[in-house]
Amino acid sequence: MTVDVVDYDPGWPARFTDERKRLQRALGDAAARIEHVGSTSVPGLAAKPVIDILVGTHDLSRLDGRNAEMIAAGFQVRGENGICGRRYYRRHAPDGTRLVHVHAYLEGSEDFRRHLVFRDYLHAHPVSAAIYGQHKAAIVAAGPLGREDYSAAKAGLVAQIERDALAWAAGRRKVPSS
């Protein structure tokens, strides 16, 4: 399956709201926090049309105890899926189109914080967001890529933005305002 990057869709926040309600019903109080993250959470940013959601929990085993409810809500339960300390879920449309990625971590963990800081940095720095969107579009325009190749192609810029975002959040150095 090849990656598709599309222009920002103003309907993405409403899709997140619907998915948040679905997650709240499935996870109950095992989810301490549910946030819209990733490119679809940044107004104006080109993105894969997949809603990325971050769930914060105080106890990963409580999330694991809600797997039956997540399956009943239409999610695939993927466990850590290669990242220690994460719980990963995804949901597809009936035609197989991927709709949602859910990344769950202990609230306050470095991974949880990193997702929020990256999102908040792009909100506060529209030039950086535009550069990121143009980079993703150029990767896709160069030829069809699978998810792993697409992720690898953008990894360098993602790492740079993440460093800038963490420094910005920590106030360690001034990052030029975009």
TrEMBL record:
Pfam family, one: GrpB
Organism: Maricaulis maris (strain MCS10) (Caulobacter maris)
SUPFAM superfamilies: Nucleotidyltransferase
Entry coiled-coil feature ranges: none
The protein's name in its UniProt record: GrpB family protein
Domain of life: Bacteria
